[in-house]
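*Target chain*
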Amino acid sequence: MTRIAIIGGHGKVALELSRILSGEGTDVTSFIRNPGHREDVAATGATPVVLDVENSTTAEIAEALRSHDAVVWSAGAGGGSPERTYAVDRDAAIRSMDAAAEAGVGRYLMVSYLGAGPDHGVPEDNSFYAYAEAKAAADAYLRGTALDWTILGPGALTDGPGNGLIEVNPADTSGGSETARANVALVAAAVLGLPSTAGRTIEFRDGTLPLAAALEPVS
């Protein structure tokens, strides 16, 4: 049986992903910071494990990830101070990548966002700047590892229904980039089952293409 580790297991995308994977018979371990979130995570069919990645060493994260087949990073500081944003979204994320390699977990899925990168264009005085910088650094680091990585870049997240219909690498987002969290979870679950997506950055938003067609390898 495949074993998947989700870091940031109490987030809305992570909870939905746990439901999907567990429903498919996958063994899911969901890492959470707050012990009070155990019941919510367990209700999805995942096994909740308390692990504060912000304050854990690479070795401690590696020990937690050992014997898993893939890791999904869906954690985040959730705004607040720039210091904590860098500590979680950049530094802890990078430690988790090193930990995955140390633990022999080759597959790594990063949940990022549409437009992430060094040319994100967010001004320094914008409250989103620290997050944009942190994600750019973490994504770049991941691309430089030997892991079988995939980076997902969903657009602006909504609580809309997940219908499994998306548009990949939208050239024009002037009309909006809304992406249902449920669709993000569906994409993540699909990507974990598609080795051909390793080494790809997949930016997407809600659209009209079924997942199987949308995620086909680029020719």
Remarks:
- The domain at 3-214 is CATH 3.40.50.720 (Rossmann fold).
- The chain has seven helices and eleven strands.
- The longest strand covers residues 148-154.
